[in-house]
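Ticket closed. Logging final result for NUDIX hydrolase.
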Amino acid sequence: MDYVQSLRQKVGTQPLILPGSVVLIVNHQGELLLENRKDGGWGLPGGLMELGESLEQTAVREVKEETGLDVRNLQLLGIFSGETYHFTFDNGDEIYSVTAVYWTKHFSGTLQVNPNESKEVRFVKSLPPTLKDEYKDYILPYYPSILETIRTSESM
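Final structure:
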């Protein structure tokens, strides 16, 4: 049983503050890795922190679980929290998420779908119309500068 499930047994659907991480993984063509999540819409690989993990360790573990990729050299872009990141799920569970957003262009492994998490994972050139709003917040402020960083580093 994971940490959140054990908390839910004690507090029911009451609001919880839950930390987690997501990662913008960008390939050399400037494409962003997205997953068509089973819980609806497209999003970034990532998830909730487990006991004893750092936010960066959470990011690395979640990317591996959800995509099969190993990521390294993560760079922190920002932390997102507050009323905007209050969610109520279909089962009534409420959370306030505190999400660390990282990016990297350093990854290895074979891209694969974890059927427990998503329907599809792939690199995209443009953001799909069904990208969940919270992920837009994580991507849009940073993606142009990430692409510029990649372009500049490869032209040297």
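The first helix runs from residue 3 to 11. No further action required.
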